[in-house]
Each structure stands twice: as structure tokens, then as C-alpha cells.
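Open question from group meeting: does this chain pack into something compact, or does most of it stay loose? Before anyone orders reagents, we agreed to write out a predicted structure and look at it together. Recording both the input and the output here so the notebook holds the full record.
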Amino acid sequence: MKSTTAANVDFFENLTSLPSDIIARIIAYLPRCILPEILSFARIRDIVASDILSAVDITDWTRNCYKNNAARTRASHCICNAFTIKPKNFKLAMDQWHMYPKLLKIGDFSTFQYILETDPEILHKAIHLHGRFHPENIDDPDPSFKLLINSGTRFDSLFLSSFGNVHSLPAITKNLQLSSTILEDYNIGGLKKLSLDMTLHSETEVPYNLYSNMEELHLLLCYPTNMILPKKLRKLIVDTSHENRVAFAPQALFNLEYIKYFQSCMKSLNETRLVTPNLKSLYLSCCHKFSDFGSLKRLKHLQDLKIYDCIYPIDLFNGKAFSELRRFEYTASSIDGKLPNFEVPETFKNLTLTFPANLKVLSINNAMFMKINLNTLKLPTSLTNLKLSNTPLSEGYLYFPENLRFIEIDVPKVSFKSDFQLPRAAVEVTIEADIIIFEGTDFIYNLPEKLSHLTLKAGFKGAIVPLTQKVKWPSSMKYFYLKNFYTDEEQLRLLNLKESNLQTIEIFRGRVKKLPDDLFPVSVKSLSLIRMGIEELPQSFECLQNLHQLYLRFNNLKNVKPVKLPLSNLKYLDLSCSKLRLLSPFLQSNLEEARFDDEITVVTECNWNLNVIDARQMLKKIKGLSLYVDGFHKTLKNISSHSSRLHILDVHDDPFFDEQEYNASLEVVSSCSSEDLYCGSDSDSDEEENERAKKRRKKGNPQ
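C-alpha cells returned:
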């Protein structure tokens, strides 16, 4: 099998057979931070260079999304929207490729001045120019600011910090953000978005007039204001950290669709003195004293309501208000699920909750101070997404509306009646609680046709009536996780996982001493069997040809016999906390088939009985093996310091460590030559390691 690197080389070489526009599309999906590595492929080099230089952040402060090979696997999560490059390297790239960026970001004055002196045309040819500036000398910001003004540069977006009072601005087309910077006039023609940090303004310096066609305004205030808001404003965000309430000049804003308030002292929406008849989205955050939720009922067209770190609006949805509301999200403090300075009334301990009839998304999180009454709970039939997290439920049974597609339950305790069924529209279902009780099994015999993910995760105890017949899995099902339901071999067989298309199977805690060889589907890519009581493994996992990851943590594998693994795809094997003595039984396939270069990572954390000589033999023979072990053994620690394949984890106590067993395992492999032991060389040359071993023997050093 080819290594990951070789597979990547083949992938990019094969791209050359595609049309240029298709190649460009594929390259555009890759993380920008890895694009320079692809420049080595000559046939696609021009396309890669074009993509790199299309969006550039020029700064002396470069960064990478990864710092080591392990993190590199997470590069797909890179959020770079512009490639970071140093000024001089950028100039070299311009000279080589003769391409100008479409998006150009400049983050400091030294970079800006360098571009002005070397190639100012770059600033004018960029379609989108973003500047972010802080004076080089905060005690005398004028020289820096004059450089901006005199350059005649027109910015698409500009952020200015700590410039104090300024009398004029560079040309700006869309977006201006100011922090510790005060303007004489905020009526800036053409501006679409303005962000003001006004915490250093005096009360008399708060601006009163803004550009009338502005669409988005962000305000960080510390004083009350009578600011007149632009008539065409569509989005307003107001953040205050003071004890004064923020009130605007009384006005009607018919275009305003989104408001977000961070105001600890605001009690009512009426205090803002704004009339917003067409508001669609309202977000109240950290409004600790907000109590007049009735003031929200005049928002007839509200579609999205989010409340964070405020009291729960008990009576808000009584009656027929909010007929257009589609999303309601409530989250108490994310720290402890409590609210500051709030005495919980008795009514919160047995809440009857109602919701608008047309609601589609409902999320209640961290509301540990209240308890939802399941006997009176009626969820809207229109609901498609439901999340109840860290919110207690009363005694009783939880039911789901038929149209629910995405369900996420994470509560202290939840029970389901014998006739419980999953919604027919369900796609992803997660039920997590300290205690989960299923009084029947009908739901698992009638799984929805489109179900792809099912998680049943009990923190302490899961109870379910034993299965009596085989489960039939929908073809769409890809992920199944079962925790703390104490699954035995018979129940494992009746789950009928073999007759599924599952790609990820995770089963935590069970009673399966001897694991049969015919339980799992060929489709499985990640198989996790943790705390299952396994003492004997099947002779082979080779039938699982698509298996990439195998987790056997917290089992009893001290006397395991040789087992054949599917080398074609298996990349990761976790044997942590499994009383492991010998590593070699798990690598027999590599040895028998002479597949010494196949890459595989084996983790043996918390296995103090692991035989060091056996581990060194395997590292010596199998060049593709990367091994993670605890740092309890000095020999392995010393070797790891000059090895890229042997990694030392933090030392953990092994509750299964037995000195007699450890000594016994030493005897099993004690008769071996020092040439057979891995000594830490990262070279693929056995001769190099042999030479080192010979030198050690001459010096009389022990292994």
C-alpha cells in the first residue's frame, strides 16, 4: 500500500488530466496555508500560484495553521481567507508571476510604506483592499496617519486603532472600524458598515449624525446617546458595559431587520425608543435585568429570537403572538448554568412551556436553574431541529414531533415509553443523559429511512428491554454510538451490525469475552469497542477491508493470540489500558506479508506491562510503525529523543500493572540479538542502525 504522501502525489499528478477550470475549482477548496507545497507540481503550478496570489495578507507576522505533522491532518479546518506572506517575499512573487491580488490585506504601516516605495500599483489594482493600522508611535500618531492620507489610497475596508482625534480619512468605499479614534464628522458618504468603539469618548463626543444610507452599525458605548440612526439601517449591534441604559433618539426604522443588544441594565425593549416594525432577528445577550418580555410582542414579523445569559421568558409565547417566528434559541450562562443575581422562583422548578405554532428550530441550553414539565410539554408539529442541553426534565416521558430531522438531547435523565418511536423524518439523533431508560425496543426495529446518525449515550446507566430479533438498519445509516447499555454477545449479534452500511461504530461497555469474527460490516471505517470485557480477539479482521481506525481501549488483551489486521487501509490502532504485554501479535500481518513500509500508528497508553524489547523489535522491522507509549521506561524515553516514530506520552498510573507479569513477558522475547532492536534511527537504512549497534557493543554499552 502507498504511503499518505505517495497518495497525495498521485492525486495532484492526476489533476493534470482535467480541464484548467476544473483544476482551479479543486485548488480553490484546499486550505491556503498548504498551497505552496503544491507548487512543485509543474503542470498545475500556474493555477496554484494564481490562487495563492488572488488573496494575500502582507505582514511581517507570518503564521501557519499547523506546527507539526500531527496538526497538519487538521489543515482542512483552516479558516485562512488570505495567504499570509512577508513583504519582500510578496515582491518576489509579483516579479515572478506577474499577477496582482484581487484581495489584499495590509496589517501595519511598515508594510504599507514598503509597498508604496516598491510597487504602489499593487494598491490600485487590488479589487478589495483591506487596511488595519495602529500608529507606530502611539505618542505621536500624526506621521503614520499622514502617510495614509497623502498616499491617495482607496480602501474597501479600513480599521484604525489609537489615533485619537483625526480631522480627515483616507477614501473608504464600504467598511470602517474605529477603536480609540475620534472623527469630527461621521457622515461619510458611501459607507455601508461602521463599527465604533466609543469607550474613550466623552459624553459630549458621541456622534449624532451618520451617513443616511448606511446599512450596518456596531456600537461599543459607555454613555447614553441620542444618536440619530440612519433611516436605511438594516443591522444594529449595541454593546455597553456600564450602568446607564442606552436610548437613541425616538425614531422609526422600517428597514431594520437585525438587532443585537449587550446591555446589562436594559429591562425593556421600549427603553431604546426605537420603532422597528419589520425586525426579523433579535439577539439579547447578557441583559441580566431584562424582564419586560412583553415588549417583544410588538415585533410582529420576528423570525429569529436568541437570548443568552438572561432570564428565561416564561410567558413570552402564551397566546398567538410570533406567528412568523421560525427559530428560538435560549442559553443561560455557559459556565455553570446559573444566572447572576437571580433568585429562582418556585414556578421555574416545574415549567409548562409553550412555543409558537410555526417554530422550526428550538434550542434550550444550560438552564440548570429550571425544570421542564414533560407532562405538559407540547412541541410544535412544525419543528425540524430540537436541542435540549443541560436542562433538567421532570418525571415522565419525552416525545418527539413527526417532522423533527435533527435531535440533540443532553439532560440529566430521560425516559421513553414502550411505544416510543423516532420521528419518520429524523436524520441525526443524539440522546445523551446520565440515565437513559427505554421501556421498549420498537423504535430500534422501525428506524427512519433517512436516518444517518444515531447516538445513545448514557453517562452512568442505560436501560433498555433486551432485543429479541435482529435489527434492520436503513441504508442511509452511517454512524452508531451506544454507551453504557452493557451489551453482551447475544445483544451484539441481534444488533445485526454486519447487515448495515455503517461507517463508524462505537460501543462502550459490555460483556463480550470472546469477540466473534462476523459481527461488523465491510463498510466500517472506524470501529471502537471500549470497556467491552474482551479477552480474546478473532483470528482476523481482514474482512473489514475499509477499516481505518480500530479502538480496543480498556479491554483485557494480556494473553491475546496473533491477529491479522486489514493492512490495506488500517492507519490507527488504539490498545490503551488493555493490560497489553506484547505488541507483536497485532503486527503479524505486516511481518508475514513483508509489508514493512505500511504506515500505522499504534497507541499503547497506560500499559506498563508492555514488553520494551518486543516493542523495539517491531519498530526495527516495521518502518511504517509509529508507536505511542507511556514514559515510564528510561530506555524508550532515551530512544524517543532521536526518533520520529517513537513518541512518549505523559506518564499515567496503570491500574493493571503487575511486576510478575512484566518480568514474565520479558522472558518471552529475551533471546534476541541487539541488531534486532530499534535504537532510534529515523533512517530507512537498516545498515545505519546496525553500524550504531556495533559501535555500542564495542564500547560495552548495554542496550
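Observations to bring back to the group:
The mean pLDDT is 86.
Residues 686-699 form the longest helix (14 residues).
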